[in-house]
From TrEMBL:
<keyword id="KW-0472">Membrane</keyword>
<comment type="similarity">
    <text>Belongs to the PC-esterase family. TBL subfamily.</text>
</comment>
<keyword id="KW-0735">Signal-anchor</keyword>
<feature type="domain" description="Trichome birefringence-like N-terminal">
    <location>
        <begin position="2"/>
        <end position="25"/>
    </location>
</feature>
<dbReference type="GO" id="GO:0016020">
    <property type="term" value="C:membrane"/>
</dbReference>
<protein>
    <submittedName>
        <fullName>OLC1v1012281C1</fullName>
    </submittedName>
</protein>
<dbReference type="InterPro" id="IPR025846">
    <property type="entry name" value="TBL_N"/>
</dbReference>
<dbReference type="GO" id="GO:0016413">
    <property type="term" value="F:O-acetyltransferase activity"/>
</dbReference>
<feature type="region of interest" description="Disordered">
    <location>
        <begin position="271"/>
        <end position="294"/>
    </location>
</feature>
<dbReference type="Pfam" id="PF14416">
    <property type="entry name" value="PMR5N"/>
</dbReference>
<dbReference type="Pfam" id="PF13839">
    <property type="entry name" value="PC-Esterase"/>
</dbReference>
<dbReference type="InterPro" id="IPR026057">
    <property type="entry name" value="TBL_C"/>
</dbReference>
<keyword id="KW-1133">Transmembrane helix</keyword>
<keyword id="KW-0812">Transmembrane</keyword>
<dbReference type="GO" id="GO:0005794">
    <property type="term" value="C:Golgi apparatus"/>
</dbReference>
<feature type="domain" description="Trichome birefringence-like C-terminal">
    <location>
        <begin position="26"/>
        <end position="319"/>
    </location>
</feature>
<dbReference type="InterPro" id="IPR029962">
    <property type="entry name" value="TBL"/>
</dbReference>
Length: 333
């Protein structure tokens, strides 16, 4: 879905723009070096479809030097690189906290109930087996859901049956609480001593509407200039709540794990050209132009083309891993 060139995208410049960090250079991804640094270790992507997008980017790069063995299932995919006994894992957890569609209090069955103060138990049991964890969440907080805190319904998104009562928590506040919950669980897990990388909220670039109301990113072929950048209030607020949640969580640390914030939100706000747009669909007869009524074709302005900007996230991950593990490879001096 994210191979935009195979799906008919006509322009290619979006693949070649590179981010230049201030006062340093970010090296190209070295697949062999990555596998060597991760020898005998497991890296896990945990979260939503943007986590899957990043995992697929990493796999595509590593595939150029070695084809992994695929194991597991849709809920927990595993890719094993035999040459270095390296495992890449993906666990699907859209909110990173406990979720159920069962009825709760006055919320009926069928609507997602999000327990903001309880980590997702499906992933917590696997935490001790991972050496590096990359967390990704946030975008599902725009979907219909009920927020539960201290065993009480405190708010909802696109759901609130009694309009005469004010919600205690909205979706951005709920996101911040969920981040604090998962970070606290990570830094207090008695059997976890790995490296947790929390990649910050990934910006989308829908114009003229949202993902479900005709928003579009068709025809964006170059990154935005500073003068063209329009601040996205929702993205900024989600980013702010996420940072607050992280800092509140890590202040409660009791184990020896390490937490690293990989803040990509601002720099990727410039990359409105990096999304699939209408080129998410492999159908050669798909509509890619606006209709006579001016409405755009179906768009994906949230995920990222591959190859494309998302590859930079894994270059950042490699730098983090290099700094964490390279000295261990050298041994005592």
């Amino acid at each position: 879905m994210h191979n935009c060139q195979s799906n008919g995208r006509p322009d290619k410049e979006y693949q070649n723009w590179r981010w230049k960090p201030a006062q340093c250079d970010l090296p190209r991804f070295d697949a062999k070096r990555f596998l060597e640094l991760m020898r005998g270790k497991t890296l896990a992507f945990i979260g939503d479809s943007v986590a899957r997008n990043q995992m697929e980017s990493l796999l595509c790069i590593l595939w150029q030097v070695e084809v992994p063995e695929k194991r597991g299932n849709q809920n927990m995919e595993r890719y094993y690189f035999r040459s270095t006994s390296t495992m890449i894992v993906r666990i699907w957890s859209t909110w990173l906290v406990h979720q159920t569609s069962e009825p709760f209090d006055f919320a009926p069955a069928g609507v997602d109930k999000i327990f903001l103060d309880s980590p997702d138990e499906r992933l917590m049991e696997h935490i001790p087996t991972f050496d590096v964890i990359i967390l990704s969440s946030g975008h599902w907080f725009t979907k219909q859901s009920v927020y539960i805190l201290n065993n009480e319904i405190v708010g909802g998104q696109r759901w609130w049956p009694d309009k005469t009562k004010e919600m205690k928590i909205n979706n951005t506040e709920a996101f911040g609480i969920s981040v604090e919950t998962i970070m606290t669980a990570m830094v207090q897990h008695s059997n976890y001593s790995g490296v947790t990388i929390l990649r910050s909220y990934s910006p989308d670039h829908y114009e003229g509407g949202a993902w479900n109301t005709g928003g579009s990113c068709t025809g964006k072929e170059k990154p935005l200039l500073d003068s063209e950048l329009v601040e996205n209030v929702f993205t900024n607020l989600m980013h702010e709540k996420q940072l607050t949640g992280i800092y509140k969580g890590i202040r409660k640390q009791t184990n020896k794990s390490k937490v690293i914030l990989m803040d990509t939100t601002k720099v990727f706000s410039y990359r409105h050209d990096g999304h699939p747009g209408p080129y998410r669909n492999p159908d050669p007869n798909k509509i890619v132009k606006r209709g006579p009524d001016g409405k755009p074709p179906p768009q994906d302005c949230l995920h990222w083309c591959m190859p494309g900007p998302v590859d930079v996230w894994n270059e950042m991950v490699l730098e983090i891993i290099r700094r964490e593990f390279e000295s261990r490879l050298k041994g005592p001096s």
